[in-house]
């Protein structure tokens, strides 16, 4: 339905193209600089969809700016404002320090969309639209998959860093396996880092004579985990579940790798979703205000192609 | 002054024997203590596979720390080594992905030579900025740390750089995972690198110059030592050691990312100090450094294998163990 509306709107815009030619609009997109895999994906998808949107709406200008830290991002917001933007899509490096800068933009009547990281007061005084992935569900989907496919599995868990996002994923996982016979043998931090995950996995293999499943909730860490298992030559491990949806790991799912049968999505492309919705708000007169939570979709060989971007750095 | 010469006259031999030996032994005493604790914590700990795993894994920090021993002995400091690992490894992988040479073995050899050359060049840059530019090594290498890290992030566009050719990967894999007569290759490389470093530091004129420069730059200068050259060469040795670590790092995961080698500089410096080299320069203990690197890796391993330590407390306990290891060393040294 939504797509058809959009299509209709596009067609209308095209038909009256000449009439609207003077009606130029600008969307500013402010995102963190690519400092690790996931943010690299954010940058890639922001640029990819910026081009698509500009093709779709002649007269639309999309400016993508990356900033390494909150202070720089606050400056970037000012720069965007001076250039005169009609809408702002922002994935804050750190939401709370940026709240005032965002409010400033919003106060001028600019349409504001916040992505992924929400400030403590996340209401209509700060933004028009909020879109995020679901950390709890990322854990829950993985937990449910394990409970359904290997009901008596003994699982080792590799956590990220001791921050709230990680805790939400752990709580979600516990909810996913609740009531099943799945047993968690161990939980240790791998710092969302390949090398650290390799070490932790090596030590798990020493410590536990029998492991059925590894849940490492992150595709970067999965790289280290798979290598450690291969080195040890252990055959008891049935499979590994990562998370996020990096191209290397989704490729494994597409190829039907037995050690990596599925993945759980926490897509960096959510910034693109926000950009599309923001463009819809500017052009299509559809109601888009509100809060959107994207599913932590289970990626299987059947649907994996839809999430595979071989040109993305992530 | 007079007491000093008196002691030296009375028993010069005994004093050197005690001094050198006990200090050199101290880190190994701490290591044995840790091995005992580990064995009590988990019976699997003392298994050969586990110890071989830990020793193999310590290879990167150990080899980098051998280079750091030279830099620190000569009174300098290099903070850029962690970023340098990421930078050199990324360039090496990019070169192998470029397919410039068709024959895989030839390509691998060329890539390894390239890594060593780049590592040496990065070290030379650090050295020249410090000596020619007369910038404090802390600041100079803090700057190059940012440069190497930034270039890596740029090369990878924030993502990962992965070795594409599976043929090359298969060919290169044994460099980390292989073994000779049951001893993992990285352990052999650690021993080889350390033996060469020990020879250079203890048996050559250059090695004595390093220690002299570290003890007192003025005295060294008046003694006719080319201080700047000695310091620069120490940075180059550090760069070469980083390159050797990279040669072992790349075959492990076959990939680098913007977070590769983060904080390794601090681990390397810690390994050097735990191994008995003074941070203020003027003395170097290469074998102690290796022992220090092994201790660092063991502490993490013991924590993980234990069943009773909360995963939230690991950092605190690691910190305590390092301090205790240093105290054990100090008390042993004082007894001499």
TrEMBL record, chain A:
SUPFAM superfamilies: Periplasmic binding protein-like I. It comes from the Bacteria. Belongs to the bacterial solute-binding protein 2 family. PANTHER family: D-ALLOSE-BINDING PERIPLASMIC PROTEIN-RELATED. Residues 1-21 form the signal peptide. Pfam families: Peripla_BP_4. It is found in: Cell envelope. One of its GO terms (cellular component) is cell envelope. This is Ribose transport system substrate-binding protein. GO terms for molecular function: carbohydrate binding. Keywords: Signal. The keyword Signal applies. Residues 27-282 form the Periplasmic binding protein domain.
Automatic annotation (TrEMBL), chain B:
The chain crosses the membrane at residues 20-42, 54-72, 79-100, 106-126, 138-156, 176-202, 230-250, 262-279, 286-306, 312-328. One of its GO terms (cellular component) is plasma membrane. Its main location: membrane. It comes from the Bacteria. Keywords: Cell membrane, Membrane, Transmembrane, Transmembrane helix. It holds the Pfam family BPD_transp_2. InterPro entries: ABC_transp_permease. It is found in: Cell membrane. One of its GO terms (molecular function) is transmembrane transporter activity. It is a multi-pass membrane protein. PANTHER family: ABC TRANSPORTER PERMEASE PROTEIN YPHD-RELATED-RELATED, RIBOSE IMPORT PERMEASE PROTEIN RBSC. This is Ribose transport system permease protein. It comes from Mycoplana azooxidifex.
